[in-house]
Amino acid sequence: MSNQFLPLIVNDESMVEMKAHGEDAFPNECCGFFYGEEKDDVRWVTIAKRIINVKEDERRRRFEISGKDYLGAERFATQEGLTLLGIYHSHPLHPAIPSKHDLEVAMPWFSYIILSVEPSGVHHVRSWQLNESREFEEETIK
Questions:
Q1: How many CB atoms sit inside 10 A of residue 24's CB?
Q2: Among 5, 36, 37, 71, which residue carries the largest CB count within 10 Å?
Q3: pTM score, whole prediction
Q4: d(CA 45, CA 29)
């Protein structure tokens, strides 16, 4: 399996924000969007924005994004001249590997950053994208 995707370069401010959100939401899953641009054969992540996990039950194992929040994310990207590059979420007490549920709700082209969060804080961060076979492949984060 070869990586066919552009590497992600996540600025420090965005990575700090995503990790802090994962730790703040623990033991529940957090979720949010990240924005930036594709240029020079890289996906540059420059902004991460928290949203509320609207999942009514099982927040420790699932996240859900409201349609209103998704539309707001698209609007924000347009207003700021950025591209909505993907979604981040946390896996409390689990590895930063996509679950079956993550695969079921994933959209092509988006990057999915997953933070593995332990009681002591974020343990690991990985990013994934759907390939043409609709399977997740890991992306490089720089």
A1: 12
A2: 36
A3: 0.94
A4: 21
